[in-house]
Amino acid sequence: MVPESRWLHPSICLPPHKITHPEKVHQLRAAFRDAGWDLSRPALVGYPLPGAGKIQLLSGSHRRAAAVEAGIRIPVVMVPYSRVWASWGCLGRWQELMQEGAN
Fold it and tell me: CB of 53 within 8 A of CB of 22?
């Protein structure tokens, strides 16, 4: 099954962790304002939170924050929560899951 990819407003996407490098966010924001999302880079990977109307991202906290500031949508490859759960704690499966954004 090919994962579904969507262009989403970043405000409905929850970041996986806090911003640790604000300067990175500022650099990305400037790049997003100048050229939009770089399509040569991987999309983000996330899964829908049932009943919440939100998407939990698995990576990309800095890219998400920069997109919010730049006012652009972000590409998110949607994976089922069952795949996230099955990958938890298994580095090989987790890496495969994260590669969904590169395909």
Answer: no
Cα–Cα dist 26/23, whole Å: 5
CB 61 within 8 A of CB 17: yes
b/e map 14-31, b = 16+ CB within 10 Å? ebeeeeeeeeebeebbee
DSSP label at residue 3? P
Structure token digits, residue 16: 């996986």
Q: pLDDT for 63-88, tens place per residue?
A: 999 999 999 999 999 999 998 989 98
SS3 81: helix
Q: Which two tokens stand for residue 101?
A: 């954004």
> Residue 1 — pLDDT band, cuts 50, 70, 90?
low
